[in-house]
Design a protein that fits this description.
The protein is mainly alpha-helical and 338 residues long. Helix content is 73%, strand content 4%.
Length: 338
């Protein structure tokens, strides 16, 4: 059953199940964000947090909530949404759940680019991440091209490129002083520690530019499973569409990596989770954005909740994502040759 929304001469039909799934994810996100805002050594209950948000509270309470906890929560939500959108775009375009930017090496390329920019300039992390991700996407696509682009060949090439780029990142760390190297090694694991308002504004400004484009591309993306001839017959310019999807997905991945580091398996898991809540083979990009934000904030909250130790959020996403990757690989092997 679909619900129809009309604005003037425009109408949009949205399946009821998709709306209910989105509402469920949004409610979970709000509850988790409220819990994360209260979590920490400085006591700050829900009622007091709302009062501080309304402009009340002491200077210390405003410092704790507005300058420390809120930017970290917003950075987690924005980066997670970008990871989720990027993963869902590549998985839908290549029609393979393994084809997410963290599996095919794009996140590793963004990390190397950001690290190189940091070493050479002392900053420019976002431009470095974008350049690294785009160069990696171009190189992996060219290496995997053989009279066409096979998703399996691209995934295997991307896995190899990701391993090589991870080794390159380790080599780049050796060029830093010991304190910077420890800090960057923590970032390369995937962490939201010490995120501030600059990080939150950057990731949400990037999302404001890229998310509408991604959601608009969802409509032609949903026609790709019909087959190339049918999609072309419906008026789609397939090479231009694939280029637009690749650039948009790569920029979203670079935006997220520049905020949290290459947080593993968030882009990989968000799309399948969104599709599980909305079966039917649709790309489900809005659901993937919400799922990515939920996974990232959950991992960061778990990293803060452990008493006496501060682990990077990437440790938790890796612990949860690695079994999922193995299970999906086994599913592919059972279906036939990879």
């Amino acid at each position: 059953m679909n619900w129809t929304f009309r604005i003037a001469s425009l109408s949009l039909q949205i399946p009821r199940q998709a709306l209910l799934a989105g509402a469920l994810l949004l409610a979970m996100l709000l509850a988790l964000a409220a819990f994360a805002a209260q979590l920490g050594s400085y006591p700050l209950g829900l009622t007091r947090s709302l009062q501080v948000l309304a402009g009340q509270g002491s200077a210390m309470e405003q410092l704790v909530l507005l300058d420390l906890r809120l930017p970290r929560i917003l950075s987690a939500l924005g980066a997670g949404a970008a990871f989720g959108l990027s993963g869902a775009i590549f998985q839908a375009m290549l029609r393979n759940p393994l084809a997410s930017p963290d599996v095919i090496g794009f996140n590793a390329g963004a990390s190397c680019g950001a690290l190189t920019a940091l070493i050479l300039t002392g900053g420019l992390v976002l431009p470095g991440a974008i350049a690294g991700a785009l160069l990696t996407a171009a190189a992996v696509t060219l290496l995997a091209w053989k009279g066409g682009l096979s998703p399996a060949r691209l995934i295997l090439t991307g896995i190899g490129a990701g391993l090589a780029l991870s080794a390159t990142a380790d080599l780049l760390l050796s060029r830093l002083d010991i304190q910077s190297a420890v800090s960057m090694a923590h970032w390369l694991t995937g962490s939201l520690n010490a995120r501030n308002w600059d990080d939150a504004v950057q990731v949400w400004a990037g999302l404001a530019l890229l998310a509408p484009l991604a959601l608009w591309l969802q409509f032609p993306l949903a026609r790709l499973p019909l087959g190339e001839e049918t999609a072309a017959g419906l008026g789609l310019n397939l090479p231009a569409l694939r280029l637009a999807l690749t650039v948009t997905g790569t920029l979203l991945a670079a935006l997220a990596v520049s905020t949290t580091g290459p947080l593993p398996f968030v882009a990989f898991a968000a799309g399948p989770l969104a599709r599980a809540l909305r079966p039917g083979g649709h790309p489900a990009l809005p659901g993937a954005a919400l799922a990515g934000a939920l996974i990232t904030l959950l991992a960061d909250t778990a990293s803060r909740a452990l008493p006496g130790i501060q682990l990077p959020a990437g440790v938790f996403t890796a612990l949860a994502g690695a079994p999922l990757l193995i299970w999906m690989l086994l599913r592919h092997f059972r279906k036939g040759p990879f």
